[in-house]
From TrEMBL:
Protein name in the entry: Ligand-binding SRPBCC domain-containing protein
Xref: Gene3D superfamilies: 3.30.530.20
Length: 153
């Protein structure tokens, strides 16, 4: 399977500084992830702004009956501009997620996510991606946009 490339754009009704401060803290991902994923931060990084080389461990249940650890590394950080996380251990053969931030005006920030992912297990992963994985990934980003609206108004 060729890796998929997805883009998601979200407008956050907050300043660039406020938006960056929220999204650059790994513990806030729990607030943005749908509850049915059972997302749990396992690393002792609460209250720490991300930095290059930071390793963040989560536990997720992507579907009933299957729980897995997910370890990502923050591989690039340019404060108030972008950061990148790459999966080191987890449910995907590839997960490369770029988060870009751009001030639209004093009280509005545009956030652009560029995601490259690939399901594991070769042809079985390709089938799983077509049947449910792609839909789940889209659902996570749709839920995140809804959570942003609820959190930020």
């Amino acid at each position: 399977m060729t890796p998929r490339r997805l883009e998601f754009s979200t407008v956050v009704p907050r300043s660039l500084t406020e938006t960056w401060d929220f999204f650059s803290r790994p513990e806030n991902l729990e607030k943005l992830t749908p509850s049915d994923v059972h997302f749990e931060l396992r690393s002792p990084v609460r209250g720490v702004e991300m930095y290059e080389g930071m390793i963040v461990q989560y536990r997720i249940r992507p579907f009933p009956g299957f729980t897995t650890d997910w370890i990502t590394e923050i591989t690039k950080v340019k404060p108030h501009h972008h950061f990148i996380d790459d999966q080191r251990v987890g449910p995907f053969a590839l997960w490369h997620h770029q988060h870009h931030f751009r001030m639209r005006d004093q009280n509005t920030t545009e956030m652009l996510d560029v995601l490259h992912y690939q399901a594991p297990l070769g042809i079985l992963g390709t089938i799983a991606d077509k049947v449910f994985v792609h839909r789940q990934v889209l659902g996570i980003f749709e839920a995140r946009e809804k959570a942003i609206k609820e959190l930020f108004g």
